[in-house]
Write a structure and sequence with these properties.
Helices cover 45% and strands 17% of the residues. By secondary structure, it is an alpha/beta fold. Helix 2 crosses helix 3 and helix 4 runs parallel beside helix 5. The N and C termini lie far apart (29 Å).
């Protein structure tokens, strides 16, 4: 498994911690930037990661200050279901109900203390099995 990952300058340090954590878990990462704390506009990174996730039928993680900007930007790309996750519950339903292929985290939020459990929960949760959730995902795909 390979996770496509990216952040803006606010999320750079958390992104580096996430990469180290995923490496410890035996999961490869494909880092699409940014590579420093120099200011960069988050939509540029969100577009790169989201496009790669769709193209490769992969999973992705995006990080900015709040996680909100990245989730808004990523969801502009057709085929992306990006979810802002801030605890285990939101990570679980992001996958189990919405089959989120990207999770977004806020580097300036309390969720930074729980990023490992958030990511682990999201990765370990199975995609939707109930028909109602599958139907809703199909409806999202048709928007």
């Amino acid at each position: 498994m390979e996770i496509i990952i990216g952040s803006d300058h606010a999320g750079f340090n958390l992104k580096e911690k996430i990469k180290a954590f995923l490496n410890e878990e035996g999961i490869k990462t494909n880092d699409l930037g940014t590579f420093s704390e120099e200011p960069i506009d988050y939509p540029l990174i969100a577009k790169k990661v989201a496009t790669a996730v769709v193209k490769n039928n992969s999973l992705g993680i995006l990080i900015c200050g709040s996680g909100i900007g990245m989730s808004i930007a990523a969801n502009k790309i057709k085929g992306v279901r990006a979810a802002l996750c801030y605890d285990k519950y939101t990570a679980k339903v992001a996958k189990a109900h919405n089959n989120a292929n990207i999770i977004c985290l806020g580097a300036r939020t309390e969720s930074t203390k729980r990023f490992k459990e958030i990511i682990k929960t999201w990765l370990e949760t199975k995609p939707p099995e109930e028909e109602r959730h599958k139907r809703r995902i199909q409806e999202l795909n048709e928007l």
